[in-house]
Design a protein that fits this description.
Helix content of chain A is 43%, strand content 16%. Chain A is built from twelve helices and twelve strands. The interface between A and B is large, with 43 and 43 residues. Chain A binds a DNA duplex (16 and 16 nucleotides) through helix 2 and helix 4.
Amino acid sequence: MTSEPGNATKLAGMKDVADRAGVAMSSVSRVLSDHPDVSDRMREKVLAAVEELGYEPDVLAQSLRTGATRTIGVVVADISNQLFAEISHGAETVLRAQGYSTFVANSLNDPEIAVKQLRMLIKRRVDGLLVSVGEEDGGPIVDAIANSGLPTVLIDRHLGTAGASRVLSDHRAGMSAVVEKLIDLGHTRIALINGLPNVLPAMERAAAAKAAAASHPGVTIEVLSGAFSSQHGEEATRALVARAERPTAIVAGSNQILVGVYTALREAGLSAPHDLSLVTCDPVPLAEFMTPALDTIWRDRQELGAMAATLMLESLRGGEPREVVLPTEYRAGGCIGPAPRTR
Amino acid sequence: MTSEPGNATKLAGMKDVADRAGVAMSSVSRVLSDHPDVSDRMREKVLAAVEELGYEPDVLAQSLRTGATRTIGVVVADISNQLFAEISHGAETVLRAQGYSTFVANSLNDPEIAVKQLRMLIKRRVDGLLVSVGEEDGGPIVDAIANSGLPTVLIDRHLGTAGASRVLSDHRAGMSAVVEKLIDLGHTRIALINGLPNVLPAMERAAAAKAAAASHPGVTIEVLSGAFSSQHGEEATRALVARAERPTAIVAGSNQILVGVYTALREAGLSAPHDLSLVTCDPVPLAEFMTPALDTIWRDRQELGAMAATLMLESLRGGEPREVVLPTEYRAGGCIGPAPRTR
DNA sequence: TTGTACGCGTTATCAG
DNA sequence: CTGATAACGCGTACAA
């Protein structure tokens, strides 16, 4: 029934605090921003008034004055993709510890939306940009970033952007390890169902796979490029297994592609490792409980985000942009076995 | 070496536009905010100047003036949890279409962090709150929300909060269907490894499971409450299967709990549906490709977020708070079978 | 060390 | 219909 004890009045402003403490607004401001030249007496009075009135500075006004929002914009393809969710989570943890908030925007794999989201973040005056959009070729995206003049960290992407820091995964290492292992087991026809070839990870994986096979005569690597989608995975797999000589091993280029691969394999009545071997890029929840356990090219995605955040903090403190490469590793399951005899 | 080509000058401000068009600032403002009383001639001049200067209004200043940020704060336990990622994604899609941005903050299942994040969002002047934090009992959380006076939509949570809209899932329906089916198949000892009992979904599931069993003498439902974590799932399962009479069926109360259940089952050398039956709450990627396919109590999580956004838009337009319940459904896999004979 | 006064970029009120 | 001007809430030279 009765209203809240205390404030029927609006929120207390800095003026109110100043009056309450019997000092000028500027003094309040100085105390609150830890200015060196304030007497202890002043500090006491002001802090007491702040306490009594429950005053909290208005960040909007602060930002308008100072030009800084202590907010970092994060642009990813889709936050409901486990990969980006963990990257974003890793970044937020590090940034939050330094008093920064993160503002996440999804591009939904659409370059136009990506640009809109970038503009939105820039209009909201973020202090920096963490970017991992799908398209490598986005001129407008690169322009929007460069034009903003904001410190930028690219995550697992190259983009033409100069002056940006970059955190990359060593996709080549993991892929090489897998292909070498397959070759050792006698595989001769290996298929990589890959994402878009203009996206860095896909590019690197394809290059590494081809390089690993190059020195082994009789081994063919076929790369099927397409969207990072289950549909692409499904169609590519269906085409592969319909052949007279189907591949002896398939590498799925992403979580979503993997779903399509499974769908088509089941449809064809094939299973790993008996009919062919199977590996996937990037961790999948429950992968180890598939039967048999799924082989994975693993990497720490939270660390990817955390490192991106670290590089961002460096830039914000005036550091030079730099590039960091994080490791990738093959984690064995039970889906890779000896090459089946050619039928 | 050389500086950026083009603008050595700062961004164009509204004053610049006014000068360029030979009008007053207030006229520029009116044109840009679609004020009814502006002549066509004026509109032309202003828009031309805006175009030429590439002027974009400063949202910070706008917000400071109007008090609205066109941003909705979203508080969830952890965005890298698939459940919340999809909820958030569904909400963003709807809100973005109406010109709103979403600002996501994670509580990491920590009530203190939850409160801090709420304060952060409120300080950033969000126009509304979408909340799905883990703890039901958080007095400080409820206070922070109520105290903010912001329109609020609770997602799958009750919280004491009055005056908030709510979007809920009909957890009882799915759970009832599953338990009925298990009982039909002769199961007598059913275990629900559940999340925290003060969180609405866990509460509802437990109640529904017990209710379903109540009319069947000889059937026992045991609820093991704990964190929504794989650790809880693992420990609970380990304890269950070590018994002389282990349960004939296990229901996992969340994705994370499920991981622990699998871990402990494998450790014990047990598998579904032979040794016991298994179901999980909420969809899991690749669930249908587990061997056998995993039985699931399914719901559309994007729709959950989308509906929350819809309710938020209603509130922002002055509508009364209301409550919506979304369906839940049992999706059969191959992990539910006849009850194993008691050993 | 403290107070005064101005400006950050808009919107809204009030005359004209 | 349009223009001048006062807020919005705060930071910061500059003067005292």
